User: Fold this.
Amino acid sequence: MTAAVMPAGSPPPLTLPTKVLYASGSVANVIKQRGLQTFLLIFYNQVVGLPAQMVATAIMIALIFDAFVDPTVGQISDNFRSKLGRRHPFMYAAALPVALAYFAIWNPPAWSPQAIFAYMLVFLLIIRLFDTFFELPASALLAELTKNYDERTSIIALRSLCGVIGGASMTFLAYQVLLKENPDGSGGILARDGYFSYGLVAALIIFTFILASSWGTHHRIPYLSQPPARKITVGGMFKEVAATLNNRSFVVLTISGMFMSISLGIKYALELYFSLYFWEFKQSQLAIMTTASIIASVIGASLASKIAKALGKKKAAITMFAGAVVALVAPICLRLLGLMPPNGSDLLFWIMFVDVILNGSMAVMTGVMLSSMMADVVEDSQVKTGRRSEGLLMSADNLFKKIVSGVGVFVSGIVLSLVAFPHKAERGGVDPEVLRNLALVYVPVICSFYAVAILCLFLYKIDKKIHEDNLAKLQAMDDAAEQKGAGEGVPSLP
Assistant:
Protein backbone atom coordinates (compact mmCIF):
# COMPACT_ATOMS: atom_id res chain seq x y z
CA MET A 1 0.00 0.00 0.00
CA THR A 2 1.59 3.28 -1.13
CA ALA A 3 0.42 6.46 0.54
CA ALA A 4 0.29 9.81 -1.18
CA VAL A 5 3.23 12.13 -0.52
CA MET A 6 2.01 14.80 1.87
CA PRO A 7 3.45 18.32 1.76
CA ALA A 8 5.73 19.47 4.53
CA GLY A 9 4.20 21.75 7.16
CA SER A 10 0.61 22.67 7.87
CA PRO A 11 -1.10 24.85 5.27
CA PRO A 12 -2.30 28.29 6.37
CA PRO A 13 -6.07 28.71 6.82
CA LEU A 14 -8.04 29.39 3.67
CA THR A 15 -8.66 33.10 3.21
CA LEU A 16 -11.97 34.51 1.99
CA PRO A 17 -10.50 35.67 -1.38
CA THR A 18 -9.18 32.14 -2.00
CA LYS A 19 -12.55 30.62 -1.18
CA VAL A 20 -14.36 33.10 -3.44
CA LEU A 21 -11.98 32.63 -6.37
CA TYR A 22 -12.16 28.85 -6.02
CA ALA A 23 -15.96 29.02 -5.83
CA SER A 24 -16.17 31.35 -8.85
CA GLY A 25 -15.08 28.50 -11.12
CA SER A 26 -18.60 27.13 -10.89
CA VAL A 27 -19.82 30.16 -12.87
CA ALA A 28 -18.11 28.78 -15.99
CA ASN A 29 -19.54 25.31 -15.49
CA VAL A 30 -23.10 26.45 -14.74
CA ILE A 31 -23.23 28.89 -17.67
CA LYS A 32 -22.12 26.11 -19.98
CA GLN A 33 -24.39 23.53 -18.37
CA ARG A 34 -27.44 25.77 -18.10
CA GLY A 35 -27.03 27.01 -21.68
CA LEU A 36 -26.85 23.49 -23.09
CA GLN A 37 -29.71 22.25 -20.92
CA THR A 38 -31.99 25.23 -21.47
CA PHE A 39 -31.38 26.39 -25.03
CA LEU A 40 -29.70 23.63 -27.04
CA LEU A 41 -32.72 21.39 -27.65
CA ILE A 42 -35.08 24.24 -28.45
CA PHE A 43 -32.43 26.02 -30.58
CA TYR A 44 -31.61 23.07 -32.82
CA ASN A 45 -35.22 21.79 -32.86
CA GLN A 46 -37.35 24.94 -33.14
CA VAL A 47 -34.82 27.42 -34.62
CA VAL A 48 -32.48 25.34 -36.80
CA GLY A 49 -35.17 22.78 -37.60
CA LEU A 50 -33.64 19.40 -36.64
CA PRO A 51 -36.08 16.76 -35.35
CA ALA A 52 -36.20 16.64 -31.54
CA GLN A 53 -35.12 13.00 -31.43
CA MET A 54 -32.06 13.76 -33.58
CA VAL A 55 -31.00 16.58 -31.25
CA ALA A 56 -31.64 14.46 -28.14
CA THR A 57 -29.62 11.61 -29.66
CA ALA A 58 -26.60 13.88 -30.19
CA ILE A 59 -26.86 15.14 -26.62
CA MET A 60 -27.07 11.59 -25.27
CA ILE A 61 -24.04 10.45 -27.31
CA ALA A 62 -22.01 13.40 -26.02
CA LEU A 63 -22.99 12.70 -22.43
CA ILE A 64 -22.07 9.02 -22.71
CA PHE A 65 -18.73 9.99 -24.28
CA ASP A 66 -18.16 12.45 -21.44
CA ALA A 67 -19.06 9.82 -18.88
CA PHE A 68 -16.25 7.53 -20.03
CA VAL A 69 -13.76 10.39 -20.37
CA ASP A 70 -14.34 11.37 -16.73
CA PRO A 71 -12.75 8.31 -15.06
CA THR A 72 -9.76 8.53 -17.39
CA VAL A 73 -9.14 12.18 -16.54
CA GLY A 74 -9.84 11.48 -12.86
CA GLN A 75 -7.36 8.61 -12.63
CA ILE A 76 -4.71 10.51 -14.59
CA SER A 77 -5.07 13.64 -12.46
CA ASP A 78 -4.94 11.59 -9.23
CA ASN A 79 -1.54 10.24 -10.29
CA PHE A 80 -0.19 13.23 -12.26
CA ARG A 81 3.12 14.71 -11.08
CA SER A 82 4.22 18.21 -12.08
CA LYS A 83 5.46 21.49 -10.65
CA LEU A 84 1.86 22.67 -10.85
CA GLY A 85 0.60 19.71 -8.86
CA ARG A 86 -2.04 17.16 -9.83
CA ARG A 87 -5.00 19.38 -10.73
CA HIS A 88 -3.92 22.78 -12.04
CA PRO A 89 -2.33 21.73 -15.36
CA PHE A 90 -5.69 20.31 -16.48
CA MET A 91 -7.61 23.32 -15.18
CA TYR A 92 -5.48 25.81 -17.09
CA ALA A 93 -5.55 23.70 -20.26
CA ALA A 94 -9.36 23.69 -20.39
CA ALA A 95 -10.00 27.44 -20.68
CA LEU A 96 -9.47 28.19 -24.38
CA PRO A 97 -10.79 24.98 -26.05
CA VAL A 98 -14.06 24.88 -24.11
CA ALA A 99 -14.71 28.58 -24.74
CA LEU A 100 -14.10 28.30 -28.50
CA ALA A 101 -16.27 25.20 -28.82
CA TYR A 102 -19.09 26.79 -26.82
CA PHE A 103 -19.12 29.75 -29.21
CA ALA A 104 -19.08 27.48 -32.26
CA ILE A 105 -22.01 25.32 -31.22
CA TRP A 106 -24.41 28.29 -31.33
CA ASN A 107 -23.30 29.24 -34.84
CA PRO A 108 -23.84 26.20 -37.08
CA PRO A 109 -23.41 26.63 -40.85
CA ALA A 110 -26.30 26.35 -43.31
CA TRP A 111 -25.75 22.67 -44.10
CA SER A 112 -27.99 19.65 -44.57
CA PRO A 113 -29.70 18.24 -41.45
CA GLN A 114 -27.28 15.29 -41.34
CA ALA A 115 -24.24 17.59 -41.60
CA ILE A 116 -25.59 19.93 -38.92
CA PHE A 117 -26.17 16.91 -36.67
CA ALA A 118 -22.52 15.92 -37.12
CA TYR A 119 -21.37 19.52 -36.53
CA MET A 120 -23.37 19.77 -33.31
CA LEU A 121 -22.11 16.41 -32.10
CA VAL A 122 -18.43 17.23 -32.73
CA PHE A 123 -18.56 20.48 -30.79
CA LEU A 124 -20.58 18.89 -28.01
CA LEU A 125 -17.84 16.30 -27.65
CA ILE A 126 -15.16 19.00 -27.51
CA ILE A 127 -17.11 20.97 -24.90
CA ARG A 128 -17.64 17.87 -22.76
CA LEU A 129 -13.99 16.78 -23.00
CA PHE A 130 -12.40 20.08 -22.00
CA ASP A 131 -15.08 20.94 -19.46
CA THR A 132 -14.06 17.70 -17.74
CA PHE A 133 -10.46 18.94 -17.77
CA PHE A 134 -11.54 21.84 -15.57
CA GLU A 135 -14.59 20.81 -13.57
CA LEU A 136 -13.43 17.39 -12.41
CA PRO A 137 -10.00 18.45 -11.05
CA ALA A 138 -11.57 21.58 -9.56
CA SER A 139 -14.20 19.51 -7.75
CA ALA A 140 -11.55 17.05 -6.55
CA LEU A 141 -9.49 19.96 -5.25
CA LEU A 142 -12.02 20.71 -2.51
CA ALA A 143 -11.14 17.66 -0.41
CA GLU A 144 -7.53 18.87 -0.29
CA LEU A 145 -8.24 22.54 0.31
CA THR A 146 -9.90 21.65 3.63
CA LYS A 147 -10.54 18.49 5.62
CA ASN A 148 -12.89 20.22 8.07
CA TYR A 149 -16.33 18.55 8.04
CA ASP A 150 -18.32 21.80 8.31
CA GLU A 151 -15.99 24.06 6.32
CA ARG A 152 -16.43 21.79 3.32
CA THR A 153 -20.17 22.38 3.41
CA SER A 154 -19.73 26.16 3.64
CA ILE A 155 -17.29 26.24 0.68
CA ILE A 156 -19.58 24.07 -1.43
CA ALA A 157 -22.45 26.39 -0.49
CA LEU A 158 -20.39 29.36 -1.69
CA ARG A 159 -19.51 27.50 -4.90
CA SER A 160 -23.17 26.69 -5.45
CA LEU A 161 -24.13 30.32 -4.79
CA CYS A 162 -21.59 31.58 -7.34
CA GLY A 163 -22.77 29.05 -9.90
CA VAL A 164 -26.47 29.81 -9.53
CA ILE A 165 -25.95 33.58 -9.54
CA GLY A 166 -23.65 33.35 -12.56
CA GLY A 167 -25.97 31.01 -14.44
CA ALA A 168 -29.10 32.99 -13.63
CA SER A 169 -27.43 36.29 -14.52
CA MET A 170 -26.34 34.89 -17.88
CA THR A 171 -29.87 33.58 -18.51
CA PHE A 172 -31.31 37.01 -17.59
CA LEU A 173 -28.84 38.66 -19.97
CA ALA A 174 -29.87 36.22 -22.69
CA TYR A 175 -33.59 36.84 -22.24
CA GLN A 176 -33.37 40.62 -21.86
CA VAL A 177 -30.45 41.62 -24.11
CA LEU A 178 -28.76 38.97 -26.25
CA LEU A 179 -31.89 37.02 -27.23
CA LYS A 180 -34.40 39.75 -26.46
CA GLU A 181 -37.95 39.42 -27.75
CA ASN A 182 -39.25 42.46 -29.65
CA PRO A 183 -42.52 44.21 -28.66
CA ASP A 184 -44.26 42.73 -31.72
CA GLY A 185 -43.29 39.18 -30.61
CA SER A 186 -40.53 38.73 -33.17
CA GLY A 187 -36.96 37.83 -32.27
CA GLY A 188 -36.27 36.17 -28.93
CA ILE A 189 -35.08 32.65 -28.26
CA LEU A 190 -37.06 31.32 -31.22
CA ALA A 191 -35.12 33.53 -33.67
CA ARG A 192 -31.57 32.79 -34.77
CA ASP A 193 -30.18 36.32 -34.90
CA GLY A 194 -29.18 36.72 -31.25
CA TYR A 195 -27.35 33.44 -30.81
CA PHE A 196 -24.08 34.81 -32.24
CA SER A 197 -23.91 37.44 -29.48
CA TYR A 198 -25.08 34.95 -26.85
CA GLY A 199 -22.40 32.43 -27.82
CA LEU A 200 -19.65 35.07 -27.90
CA VAL A 201 -20.47 36.64 -24.52
CA ALA A 202 -20.95 33.28 -22.80
CA ALA A 203 -17.67 31.95 -24.21
CA LEU A 204 -15.73 34.98 -22.95
CA ILE A 205 -17.23 34.65 -19.46
CA ILE A 206 -16.48 30.91 -19.35
CA PHE A 207 -12.84 31.55 -20.37
CA THR A 208 -12.40 34.30 -17.76
CA PHE A 209 -13.81 32.39 -14.80
CA ILE A 210 -11.88 29.18 -15.53
CA LEU A 211 -8.62 31.15 -15.46
CA ALA A 212 -9.67 33.17 -12.39
CA SER A 213 -10.50 30.05 -10.37
CA SER A 214 -7.30 28.28 -11.43
CA TRP A 215 -5.15 31.31 -10.59
CA GLY A 216 -6.99 31.91 -7.31
CA THR A 217 -5.96 28.52 -5.94
CA HIS A 218 -2.51 28.47 -7.57
CA HIS A 219 -0.75 29.57 -4.37
CA ARG A 220 -2.10 26.48 -2.54
CA ILE A 221 -0.19 24.09 -4.84
CA PRO A 222 2.75 23.64 -2.38
CA TYR A 223 0.31 22.43 0.28
CA LEU A 224 -1.50 19.88 -1.92
CA SER A 225 -0.76 16.16 -1.95
CA GLN A 226 1.67 14.77 -4.51
CA PRO A 227 1.15 11.21 -5.71
CA PRO A 228 4.10 8.84 -5.16
CA ALA A 229 6.41 8.18 -8.09
CA ARG A 230 5.59 4.63 -9.14
CA LYS A 231 4.97 2.34 -12.06
CA ILE A 232 1.64 0.61 -12.35
CA THR A 233 0.33 -1.91 -14.84
CA VAL A 234 -3.07 -1.66 -16.49
CA GLY A 235 -4.20 -4.62 -14.41
CA GLY A 236 -2.94 -2.96 -11.26
CA MET A 237 -4.75 0.24 -12.17
CA PHE A 238 -8.06 -1.60 -12.55
CA LYS A 239 -7.53 -3.29 -9.19
CA GLU A 240 -6.96 0.09 -7.58
CA VAL A 241 -10.07 1.50 -9.24
CA ALA A 242 -12.18 -1.44 -8.02
CA ALA A 243 -10.82 -1.14 -4.47
CA THR A 244 -11.47 2.60 -4.36
CA LEU A 245 -15.04 2.35 -5.65
CA ASN A 246 -15.93 -0.53 -3.32
CA ASN A 247 -17.35 1.81 -0.71
CA ARG A 248 -20.95 1.58 0.48
CA SER A 249 -21.51 5.31 0.95
CA PHE A 250 -20.01 6.05 -2.46
CA VAL A 251 -22.20 3.41 -4.13
CA VAL A 252 -25.47 4.67 -2.63
CA LEU A 253 -24.62 8.30 -3.41
CA THR A 254 -23.81 7.32 -6.99
CA ILE A 255 -27.01 5.32 -7.48
CA SER A 256 -29.02 8.18 -6.00
CA GLY A 257 -27.23 10.59 -8.32
CA MET A 258 -28.01 8.41 -11.33
CA PHE A 259 -31.76 8.52 -10.74
CA MET A 260 -31.60 12.21 -9.90
CA SER A 261 -29.71 12.90 -13.13
CA ILE A 262 -32.29 11.12 -15.25
CA SER A 263 -34.93 13.40 -13.76
CA LEU A 264 -32.77 16.50 -14.19
CA GLY A 265 -32.13 15.57 -17.80
CA ILE A 266 -35.89 15.44 -18.40
CA LYS A 267 -36.56 18.58 -16.34
CA TYR A 268 -34.00 20.82 -18.03
CA ALA A 269 -34.75 19.59 -21.55
CA LEU A 270 -38.48 20.34 -21.17
CA GLU A 271 -38.25 23.40 -18.91
CA LEU A 272 -38.62 25.95 -21.72
CA TYR A 273 -41.40 23.94 -23.33
CA PHE A 274 -43.41 24.23 -20.14
CA SER A 275 -42.51 27.91 -19.64
CA LEU A 276 -43.36 29.01 -23.19
CA TYR A 277 -46.22 26.73 -24.11
CA PHE A 278 -47.78 25.26 -20.94
CA TRP A 279 -47.67 28.48 -18.84
CA GLU A 280 -47.34 30.85 -21.85
CA PHE A 281 -44.88 33.16 -20.11
CA LYS A 282 -43.33 36.01 -22.08
CA GLN A 283 -39.57 36.32 -22.28
CA SER A 284 -39.71 39.42 -20.10
CA GLN A 285 -41.41 37.31 -17.44
CA LEU A 286 -38.82 34.54 -17.82
CA ALA A 287 -36.11 37.14 -17.32
CA ILE A 288 -37.76 38.30 -14.09
CA MET A 289 -38.08 34.65 -13.08
CA THR A 290 -34.29 34.35 -13.14
CA THR A 291 -34.18 36.76 -10.21
CA ALA A 292 -36.18 34.16 -8.29
CA SER A 293 -33.33 31.71 -8.97
CA ILE A 294 -30.83 34.18 -7.56
CA ILE A 295 -32.96 34.74 -4.46
CA ALA A 296 -33.29 30.97 -4.08
CA SER A 297 -29.53 30.45 -4.36
CA VAL A 298 -28.84 33.07 -1.70
CA ILE A 299 -31.37 31.48 0.64
CA GLY A 300 -30.14 27.95 -0.09
CA ALA A 301 -26.45 28.78 0.27
CA SER A 302 -27.08 30.77 3.46
CA LEU A 303 -29.11 28.04 5.15
CA ALA A 304 -27.33 24.90 3.90
CA SER A 305 -24.56 24.85 6.52
CA LYS A 306 -26.94 25.71 9.36
CA ILE A 307 -29.45 23.01 8.43
CA ALA A 308 -26.68 20.46 7.87
CA LYS A 309 -25.29 21.18 11.35
CA ALA A 310 -28.73 20.98 12.93
CA LEU A 311 -29.97 17.80 11.22
CA GLY A 312 -26.79 16.16 9.93
CA LYS A 313 -25.93 16.12 6.24
CA LYS A 314 -27.88 12.97 5.36
CA LYS A 315 -31.16 13.85 7.08
CA ALA A 316 -30.97 17.43 5.81
CA ALA A 317 -30.34 16.25 2.24
CA ILE A 318 -33.31 13.85 2.31
CA THR A 319 -35.64 16.49 3.75
CA MET A 320 -34.67 19.23 1.32
CA PHE A 321 -34.67 16.83 -1.63
CA ALA A 322 -38.25 15.74 -0.95
CA GLY A 323 -39.39 19.33 -0.49
CA ALA A 324 -37.80 20.39 -3.77
CA VAL A 325 -39.61 17.65 -5.70
CA VAL A 326 -42.98 18.62 -4.21
CA ALA A 327 -42.40 22.27 -5.14
CA LEU A 328 -41.41 21.26 -8.69
CA VAL A 329 -44.51 19.29 -9.61
CA ALA A 330 -47.19 20.92 -7.43
CA PRO A 331 -48.08 23.75 -9.86
CA ILE A 332 -48.44 21.33 -12.79
CA CYS A 333 -50.64 19.00 -10.74
CA LEU A 334 -52.80 21.92 -9.61
CA ARG A 335 -53.20 23.06 -13.23
CA LEU A 336 -54.30 19.55 -14.26
CA LEU A 337 -56.89 19.72 -11.46
CA GLY A 338 -58.08 23.13 -12.65
CA LEU A 339 -56.88 24.89 -9.49
CA MET A 340 -54.35 27.34 -10.98
CA PRO A 341 -55.11 30.86 -12.31
CA PRO A 342 -55.39 31.21 -16.11
CA ASN A 343 -52.38 31.86 -18.30
CA GLY A 344 -51.57 35.52 -18.70
CA SER A 345 -52.73 36.51 -15.23
CA ASP A 346 -50.43 38.32 -12.81
CA LEU A 347 -51.48 35.96 -10.02
CA LEU A 348 -50.19 32.95 -11.97
CA PHE A 349 -46.84 34.63 -12.53
CA TRP A 350 -46.30 35.49 -8.87
CA ILE A 351 -47.39 32.03 -7.70
CA MET A 352 -44.77 30.54 -10.02
CA PHE A 353 -42.20 33.14 -8.91
CA VAL A 354 -42.61 32.06 -5.28
CA ASP A 355 -42.60 28.39 -6.30
CA VAL A 356 -39.26 28.83 -8.12
CA ILE A 357 -37.80 30.31 -4.92
CA LEU A 358 -39.08 27.39 -2.84
CA ASN A 359 -37.93 24.73 -5.31
CA GLY A 360 -34.62 26.45 -6.03
CA SER A 361 -33.60 27.09 -2.42
CA MET A 362 -34.28 23.48 -1.41
CA ALA A 363 -32.55 22.19 -4.55
CA VAL A 364 -29.46 24.29 -3.80
CA MET A 365 -29.34 22.98 -0.23
CA THR A 366 -29.71 19.42 -1.49
CA GLY A 367 -26.87 19.85 -3.98
CA VAL A 368 -24.59 21.41 -1.37
CA MET A 369 -25.16 18.57 1.08
CA LEU A 370 -24.75 15.81 -1.50
CA SER A 371 -21.46 17.32 -2.72
CA SER A 372 -20.22 17.65 0.85
CA MET A 373 -21.25 14.05 1.57
CA MET A 374 -19.27 12.89 -1.48
CA ALA A 375 -16.21 14.84 -0.30
CA ASP A 376 -16.40 12.99 3.03
CA VAL A 377 -16.15 9.69 1.14
CA VAL A 378 -12.56 10.61 0.18
CA GLU A 379 -11.13 9.99 3.67
CA ASP A 380 -13.42 7.01 4.24
CA SER A 381 -11.97 5.43 1.11
CA GLN A 382 -8.41 6.44 1.99
CA VAL A 383 -8.63 4.65 5.35
CA LYS A 384 -9.39 1.43 3.47
CA THR A 385 -7.04 1.80 0.47
CA GLY A 386 -4.22 4.07 1.66
CA ARG A 387 -4.66 6.30 -1.41
CA ARG A 388 -6.25 9.72 -1.91
CA SER A 389 -8.46 9.25 -4.96
CA GLU A 390 -10.60 12.38 -5.13
CA GLY A 391 -10.44 12.55 -8.90
CA LEU A 392 -11.38 8.92 -9.39
CA LEU A 393 -14.29 9.12 -6.94
CA MET A 394 -15.67 12.31 -8.46
CA SER A 395 -15.22 11.05 -12.01
CA ALA A 396 -16.79 7.67 -11.35
CA ASP A 397 -19.75 9.41 -9.74
CA ASN A 398 -20.01 11.68 -12.78
CA LEU A 399 -19.69 8.72 -15.17
CA PHE A 400 -22.94 7.12 -14.09
CA LYS A 401 -24.74 10.44 -13.68
CA LYS A 402 -23.84 11.58 -17.17
CA ILE A 403 -24.74 8.30 -18.82
CA VAL A 404 -28.23 8.38 -17.37
CA SER A 405 -28.72 12.13 -17.73
CA GLY A 406 -28.19 11.49 -21.42
CA VAL A 407 -30.99 8.96 -21.12
CA GLY A 408 -33.11 11.69 -19.53
CA VAL A 409 -32.54 14.05 -22.47
CA PHE A 410 -33.21 11.21 -24.90
CA VAL A 411 -36.46 10.38 -23.11
CA SER A 412 -37.46 14.05 -23.40
CA GLY A 413 -37.14 13.82 -27.17
CA ILE A 414 -39.26 10.67 -27.19
CA VAL A 415 -41.88 12.33 -24.99
CA LEU A 416 -42.15 15.29 -27.36
CA SER A 417 -42.57 12.90 -30.28
CA LEU A 418 -45.03 10.74 -28.34
CA VAL A 419 -47.37 13.64 -27.61
CA ALA A 420 -46.90 14.93 -31.18
CA PHE A 421 -45.49 18.28 -30.11
CA PRO A 422 -45.36 20.45 -33.26
CA HIS A 423 -42.25 21.95 -34.87
CA LYS A 424 -41.99 25.75 -35.16
CA ALA A 425 -44.70 26.03 -32.51
CA GLU A 426 -45.97 29.44 -31.43
CA ARG A 427 -46.79 30.42 -27.88
CA GLY A 428 -50.53 30.03 -27.38
CA GLY A 429 -50.86 28.00 -30.57
CA VAL A 430 -50.33 24.46 -29.27
CA ASP A 431 -53.36 22.17 -28.89
CA PRO A 432 -54.36 22.13 -25.16
CA GLU A 433 -54.75 18.36 -25.36
CA VAL A 434 -51.10 18.03 -26.42
CA LEU A 435 -50.03 20.16 -23.44
CA ARG A 436 -52.21 18.16 -21.06
CA ASN A 437 -50.73 14.90 -22.33
CA LEU A 438 -47.24 16.33 -21.90
CA ALA A 439 -47.97 17.12 -18.25
CA LEU A 440 -49.63 13.76 -17.61
CA VAL A 441 -46.51 11.94 -18.82
CA TYR A 442 -44.00 14.31 -17.23
CA VAL A 443 -45.21 14.28 -13.61
CA PRO A 444 -45.31 10.53 -12.84
CA VAL A 445 -42.09 9.81 -14.74
CA ILE A 446 -40.02 12.48 -13.02
CA CYS A 447 -41.48 11.73 -9.57
CA SER A 448 -40.68 8.02 -9.91
CA PHE A 449 -36.99 8.65 -10.61
CA TYR A 450 -36.72 11.24 -7.85
CA ALA A 451 -38.34 8.85 -5.34
CA VAL A 452 -35.69 6.19 -5.97
CA ALA A 453 -32.94 8.82 -5.63
CA ILE A 454 -34.26 9.90 -2.23
CA LEU A 455 -34.69 6.35 -0.92
CA CYS A 456 -31.07 5.50 -1.74
CA LEU A 457 -29.81 8.25 0.56
CA PHE A 458 -31.13 6.41 3.61
CA LEU A 459 -28.27 3.88 3.14
CA TYR A 460 -25.47 6.48 3.37
CA LYS A 461 -23.49 5.89 6.59
CA ILE A 462 -20.84 8.65 7.07
CA ASP A 463 -21.75 11.20 9.74
CA LYS A 464 -19.59 13.76 11.54
CA LYS A 465 -18.32 11.25 14.12
CA ILE A 466 -17.29 8.70 11.48
CA HIS A 467 -15.56 11.44 9.46
CA GLU A 468 -13.57 12.64 12.47
CA ASP A 469 -12.66 9.03 13.31
CA ASN A 470 -11.39 8.63 9.75
CA LEU A 471 -9.22 11.75 10.09
CA ALA A 472 -7.78 10.42 13.34
CA LYS A 473 -6.95 7.07 11.72
CA LEU A 474 -5.25 8.79 8.79
CA GLN A 475 -3.21 10.96 11.14
CA ALA A 476 -2.11 7.86 13.03
CA MET A 477 -1.08 6.23 9.73
CA ASP A 478 0.96 9.32 8.77
CA ASP A 479 2.64 9.40 12.18
CA ALA A 480 3.53 5.71 11.94
CA ALA A 481 4.95 6.22 8.44
CA GLU A 482 7.09 9.15 9.65
CA GLN A 483 8.42 7.13 12.59
CA LYS A 484 9.24 4.23 10.32
CA GLY A 485 11.04 6.55 7.88
CA ALA A 486 13.04 8.13 10.72
CA GLY A 487 14.04 4.71 12.03
CA GLU A 488 15.21 3.49 8.67
CA GLY A 489 17.05 6.71 7.84
CA VAL A 490 16.66 8.88 4.78
CA PRO A 491 18.80 7.77 1.83
CA SER A 492 21.09 10.42 0.37
CA LEU A 493 20.47 11.72 -3.12
CA PRO A 494 22.82 10.41 -5.82
About this structure: The chain has 14 helices and no strands.
